[in-house]
Amino acid sequence: xxxxxxxxxxxxxxxxxxxxxxxxxxxxxxxxxxxxxxxxxxxxxxxxxxxxxxxxxxxxxxxxxxxxxxxxxxxxxxxxxxxxxxxxxxxxxxxxxxxxxxxxxxxxxx
Length: 110
What we know:
Strand content: 25-35%
């Protein structure tokens, strides 16, 4: 699963959740947007916040709400639960389980 912040309609940055059935990975991909634009769009969408150029914190409930309605896998919820459990074992999940720490990557070419 990828959360993208890319230039959308009318050249305005937008956040979107893509590859919702691929729960073997989770990261934030930034397109041709400034760091400030990316931070504002991500927060405005309620999906999370950027800590620095390499790390972001995504809102688990908002991510689930954005992805689940578009999921097509019959075991999607179980796969989601495994992904979140794995994040917890790696220390990527906040203590309260509300946010997950992810890597920030370039979405160039995506």
